[in-house]
């Protein structure tokens, strides 16, 4: 899997000290630094801006309050690396289930062939051995994936800058 440096977006949430309460949600300036070097996607109040080097690359896009709050929430969710990894986890789980399902289907086929070919169990034994092989292969692939994931977790070194920034923010 991809490590932390290969994530789709690096997100920083910055609270503007001059924020005003609007409805129930506090208006903050939210910015996402993208993989494209130097480009930043910023949500200033209710305006969406694409900028680079503190200069706007496109005209600000005005959003209504509901869309701005929804986009702010999505940008906040993007800062959680676990949220960005959900799709990969789901795909790996589906692959694992498919492998085990194949083994079970071959075992069912072995049982059915034993029923049909009563005096001769050769075909049944072949299917049973194939099912055991598929089960072993699925288990070893799962263990290999777990070892690779553990190696990735062991390589991870946390970046505490985000937490330091959040701790240094003034509480209003």
Written description of the protein model:
The chain has 172 residues and is α+β, with helices and mostly antiparallel strands. It has 2 domains: 4-79, no CATH class; 86-155. Helices cover 53% and strands 19% of the residues. It is built from 4 helices and 8 strands; from the N terminus they run ββββββββαααα. Strands 1, 4, 5, 6, 7 and 8 form a 6-stranded antiparallel beta sheet that branches. It has a two-stranded antiparallel ribbon with strand order 2-3. The longest helix is centred in the middle third of the chain and has 36 residues, at 81-116. Mean pLDDT is 76; it is low at 1-25.
In short:
The chain has helices at 65-78, 81-116, 122-155, 161-168, and strands spanning 9-14, 21-22, 25-26, 29-34, 39-44, 47-52, 55-56, 61-62. It has 172 residues and is of the alpha+beta class. It folds into two domains: 4-79, no CATH class; 86-155.
Task: Describe the secondary structure blueprint for this structure.
Blueprint: E1 9-14, E2 21-22, E3 25-26, E4 29-34, E5 39-44, E6 47-52, E7 55-56, E8 61-62, H1 65-78, H2 81-116, H3 122-155, H4 161-168
Antiparallel strand pairs: 1-4, 2-3, 4-5, 5-6, 6-7, 6-8
- SSE ordering: EEEEEEEEHHHH
Tell me, rounded to a whole number, the average pLDDT.
Answer: 76
What is the strand content? 15-25%
Number of strands: 8
- How many domains? The number is 2
Radius of gyration: 26 Å
Query: Number of helical runs?
Result: 4
- CA(first)-CA(last) distance: 40 Å
Low-confidence stretches: 1-25
* Strand-pairing-aware structural class: alpha+beta
How does the overall form come out from the CA principal axes?
Answer: elongated
């Amino acid at each position: 899997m991809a490590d932390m440096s290969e994530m789709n977006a690096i997100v920083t949430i910055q609270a503007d000290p001059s924020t005003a309460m609007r409805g129930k949600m506090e208006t903050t300036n939210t910015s996402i630094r993208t993989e494209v070097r130097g480009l930043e996607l910023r949500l200033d109040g209710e305006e969406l801006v694409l900028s680079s080097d503190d200069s706007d690359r496109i005209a600000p896009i005005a959003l209504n309050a509901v869309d701005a709050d929804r986009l702010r929430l999505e940008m906040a969710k993007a800062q959680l690396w676990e949220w960005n990894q959900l799709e990969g986890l789901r795909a790996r789980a589906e692959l694992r289930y498919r492998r085990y399902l194949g083994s079970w289907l071959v075992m069912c086929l072995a049982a059915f062939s034993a029923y049909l070919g009563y005096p001769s169990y050769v075909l049944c034994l072949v299917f049973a051995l194939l099912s055991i092989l598929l089960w072993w292969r699925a288990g070893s692939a799962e263990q290999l994936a777990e070892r690779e994931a553990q190696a990735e977790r062991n390589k991870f070194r946390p970046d505490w800058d985000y937490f330091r920034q959040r701790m240094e923010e003034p509480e209003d």
